[in-house]
Amino acid sequence: MFDRIAKNYDVANRAISMGMDKGWRRKTIQLLKPFRAGRYLDIGTGTGDLVFEILDQSANVLIDGIDPSEQMLEIAKDKAEKLGVGDAVSFFAADALDLPMESETYDGIVSGFCFRNIERRQMALAEMMRVLKPGGILVILEATYPRNPLVRLGYRLYRPVVPIIGKFLGGGSAYKYLMDSIEDFPKPETVTDMFSAAGFSGVQYKSLTFGTVCIFSGKK
């Protein structure tokens, strides 16, 4: 599915989020607090936007971006080449449930709009914990179903528009799935409980844009 929508994925994200996704990613990396010479992992990197945001906020870092979608990864690699940052980043296919890295490899892990697509989320969190160094930070950016009744009404009115935008860009059914997955995603408190169950400390979440997006974080 993600291979099919890869070509227009960035354009669709800008349109559907009305340009707000850039700000969400910036705040996500601000919580990650990348530091010079640190090593980071982006799980479900897609076309690499979080990877490039890390590079914008910190110099001399090394970043691995993984995703199961080869077409998404090809676009991420092309963007890295055009930006001239190929030496700092590495994009490759990998499974969040079976990370091919040694334990205690990374100073931080990020993931944007991917976690809700993982079926065995607790297992994925255990893998993230394993590959983090002691003191490392996990930050997950995810779309969430708003709680405020008025915002929820607006969300429901906007919901049918998303597949139309997706269809115009060649992926209507995929964007219907993406909207369905938001409504199926657990409440923020359930997600933070999952972080704690995986062994993360200082677990918290921050709601953005009236609760339509949350940033979850925890420390090893």
Architecture overview:
The protein contains ten helices and seven strands. It has 220 residues and is α/β, with parallel strands linked by helices. A seven-stranded mixed β-sheet has the order 3-2-1-4-5-7-6, sandwiched between helices.
Layout of strands and helices, then pairs:
Layout: H1 2-5, H2 9-16, H3 21-32, E1 39-43, H4 49-57, E2 62-66, H5 70-83, E3 89-92, E4 106-112, H6 121-131, E5 132-143, H7 149-158, H8 161-168, H9 172-184, H10 188-197, E6 201-208, E7 213-219
Parallel strand pairs: 1-2, 1-4, 2-3, 4-5
Antiparallel strand pairs: 5-7, 6-7
Helix pairs in contact: 3-4, 8-9
What are the segments in which pLDDT stays under 50 over at least 5 consecutive residues? none
How much helix, percentage-wise, in residues?
A: 40-55%
Task: Give Rg in angstroms.
Answer: 17 Å
Spatial strand order of the main sheet: 3-2-1-4-5-7-6
Strand content: 15-25%
Give descriptors for this structure:
7-stranded mixed sheet; 220 residues; 10 helices; alpha/beta
